[in-house]
Amino acid sequence: STAFHKRGSISSKRTSGEEMADIQIKEVSEAEAIRMWNRDNPDDPFSRQAPSWYDIRNWIVRTNDGEVVAIAGYTDMGDYAILGGMKARSKDKPKGGGNWKALLNYRKNILGNKPKIAGFRATKMPQAKWTAMNERAGYQRKDMMGIPQELTDKFTERYGDDWGIMKNTSWFFPMMRGLI
After folding, report:
1. Which residues in 30-41 are b (16+ Cβ under 10 Å) and which e?
2. Is the pLDDT of residue 47 over 50?
3. Is the pLDDT of residue 37 over 50?
């Protein structure tokens, strides 16, 4: 496939290719994040039809040599945070792979150890696979970690079992990096 050859031409090792690339994460407005994503990913337009209670106020983009390869959002509610709006280039695309994890890690670092709630809606893979990937990344539904029941009930109503709450665990991601 062309995507493989493009990446392979930089280096046979993906990590070396990433070291050579100019990779940045920056905070932008929601409108700017969506405009930039759609400009650089016209075959995969961003759309988010979330209810008003799933309010995302802060948006970030990950760029690779100036091209937007991932977009995500978060809202810091004080005692907890809401994550959402994730969209990333898949690893079969040029400059794809690792982008969703990079933005998850960035938001975990910004938000610290407070619990983070998110709904999972797959756009590029089967829903069960996307939920499983998020659960392997540390999301769970057993401990509500002080997030208001009114909100967790809304997530259950909208997403069924396809949502979760994560607490930041700094040892977890380096260990998991090779598995996802």
Report:
1. eeebbebbeebb
2. yes
3. yes
Length of the chain in residues, anyone? 180
pLDDT of residue 7: 39
What does each C-alpha distance from 169 to 103, 124, 159 come to in angstroms? 15, 27, 25
Q: What is the pLDDT of residue 169?
A: 55
CA distance 152 to 168: 19
Q: What mean pLDDT is predicted for residues 108-115?
A: 90
For the record, the structure tokens of 74 come out as 């978060």
